[in-house]
Amino acid sequence: MAVSSAHAHLSGRDDGLVKVAPLLAIIADWNAFLNSAIPEEELRDLRRHGRTGRPLGDEKFVERLEKMLGRVLKPQKRGPKPKRQRN
Hints:
46% helix; 5 helices; mainly alpha; 0% strand
């Protein structure tokens, strides 16, 4: 079963999943927001990043996430990595 905060935001009441105040301060009319059309290019980006699991944002945003998490999030060169030579 999918869990969503939409019902709480539409009703304007907190539930066991979410506190609505922070997002209601940004989006006052959740019904209009949820019914608004998303440009096809944005949908394509959301789907692509959802499939790959990579963060969606500009390079600066991804670099900040990498720094915070201490791991690489940008796509790396494909294929096997070159073997290191032993000295």
